[in-house]
Amino acid sequence: MKLNKSLFSSSEFIVFLGLLALGAFFAFTSPVFLTKFNLLNILLQSSIQGIIAIGMTFVILTAGIDLSVGSVVALSGVIMALMLHAGVPVWAVILLNLLFGVAIGVFHGFSITKIGMAPFIVTLATMAMARGLTMVFSDGKTIFDFPASFEFFGAGTIGPISVAVIIFLLYAFVAEVLLRSTVLGRNIYAVGSNPKAAALSGIRTTWVLYFVYIVSGVSCAIAGLVLTGRLGAAMPTAATGYELDAIAAVIIGGASLMGGKGTIIGTIIGVLLIGVINNGMNLLNVPPFWQSFLKGAVIFLAVMIDSLKNRQTEV
Amino acid sequence: MKSSPILETRNLTKVFPGVVALDDVSLELFPGEVLGLVGENGAGKSTLMKLVGGVYAPTKGQIIYDGYEVQFRSPKDALDAGISIVYQELNLIPHLSVAENIFINRLPRKGSFVDWGRLYAETRKILSESGMEGIDPRAIVAELPIGVKQSVEIAKALSYDSRVILFDEPTSSLTGPEIENLFSVIRSLQQRDIGIIYVSHHLDEIFEITNRIHVLRDGKTVAVMPTSEATEEIVVSKMVGRDIKNIYYKGSHVPSEVVLEAKGITDHYLKSVDFKVRRSEVVGVYGLLGSGRTELLKALIGARPLQDGEIKLHGHSVRFGHPHDAIKNGLIYSSEDRKGENLFFGNPIWKNITYLAIQVGRFVKLGFTQQQEERRAAGEYAKKLNVKAPSLDVDVYHLSGGNQQKVCLAKALINDPDVILLDEPTRGIDVGAKLEIYRLIADLADQGKAVVFVSSELPEIIGCADRVYTMSEGRITAELLGDDINEENVLKYCLQVGAAEEATL
User: Which residues form the domain of A139?
Assistant: First the structure.
């Protein structure tokens, strides 16, 4: 029985090794992979997924799930686009967009804690509703033409680094500190690990659940801002399927769907792993159908290794 | 005349990486005998059971069953040979009927359909052979009381023509009458020359039902004796490895002013409960499972909404909307259900100990936890309570029941509460840890704390409490003091239904 969870046996470290192995493989097979331009590109492409996955980590830590993220990102983009076209100033658009994220979280929190609905079902419903509203508001069409100060958040750069990457890394840092060192963060783990014990230990579990769904909603709003800015367009079909990549990244990063286990660092490694696979396969000209298969296979392998390691031998 | 043993282990040894769980244990079980297997947690009882039951393979040694050496590769091998284990946590499928559960995997068939007629007939036969005629083969298991479920589990064992049945803590969730019922079933199994190994922490049960007692300590056999020659002190001394004269301990406190008082508290389970506890007092609450004792404690801390009644803390009327408020006011509840309601498995010892404290701002600055301080304080309490673990970073999941319970107590005590509500703090833990907890309870009262001690073990309530409430069906049925706290009284009142109305007539 090995008791001390050392750095080298942690889930994060094993996935990190996997990430390095994949990186080495692509570095050998493609001359472009290790270039500075390509590496920054991977980071940029991972940043939107990363922001969403950070929110998803909070939710999954409480043994919940948020299937609505992709649709909410798209809806956020369309709402901002319409506000911009209606002449609302950029700062107000961003603020209202964040409030929209909070509202989505409050709706989920209320449905789950007060009505007692299962997170899977509530967020599945939101996923369909939000996507529907995206179509209704945009009339199914892509919306273009935004002020440069708005697009800055997705397309701008500070020095050699994209603003999107900076937002992602800052957000990750705040999330990591919150989860690791604050009472609220500890309570999120507690609620995921044992909700009854949490309540009897004086943790207001309802507040905690509201909080994590709000974090997820706000993450989508931030991701919507970055994505819309980067594309210079709000597309009603944007971010389709992002929920699955986000969940995959969180789980690859060592989190448990049963709650109580997982870290932001792990999630980021998970996001980068998916980003590297996508990028590497493109560089190697892998046909798209095979890309989907291979990505799935890597996700399966990553989670399998973790499950085998944690398989409890005791009956 | 003694026949030959039905089951025998010779020099049985099981080594796990880093731990010798069972060390050279030789044991004999004769047909028609009940052998009590006792020892502290970690003494090797479960390992022995699992070796005999085919869950583990031995590292060394032999298992002789019915005169032949056997090597089971799986629990199914053991079961087919005629050795079955009735586990503490039952392995029944809740939504199937009694008959389906007993014959699961082996349902009698007519062509490719289940032969329901034969299924029910055979089930009825098995049930009646062991004095369980009262159970309806068609009843859905989920709807049965826990005691009956256990009988179904036993019937399932019998349906395999088992000649050896191992019981692992069978009474841990049974009520008094259910235990009596279990004992009469075990006696009827004895009549049929079935050999029984009975594992329990409850020595009173060991003394009542077994013929011989086999004591394990640290994986080794330390004593084997006929039950008729054993006493509680002898067995406990062997188990813990030192002489024990007084199991219970009352301390030297004298109760003073009332700290917590409840008047007429009522919810959908509790019926107008009056309750109080004083400074420097240990109040025992005794009642069977479902008597309302846990509900009472939870109502006091605001974990259950009250419909009526008043709670006073230090003379001031309070109403807690959430356990958080109770904790803030120095009132702490420690749940009996360590795994389900108290500890955070997957988290290290130190975080478990401080979880409750950080909710009320201890070890916290501006919302950030001061983890150095947390660790230091957690370490201090872990040491005070004698938590045995290689480090504070160990996941509580890996600790024994007794050590888990000590972590629960550390978690409650680190906040220095005025009132401590302990719900079955000794449930399922070994004797050594129990003794420490009895002493701790007395010490807390000596320090001026108000301690409420809920238990379903009569001797410990009688041995530890200054005052005792008995509960039944959501009511307090009696308040006992001094010499009135005795077995006869406590049992009489806790079984008494509607005693409260009688008293007011």
Answer: 48-240
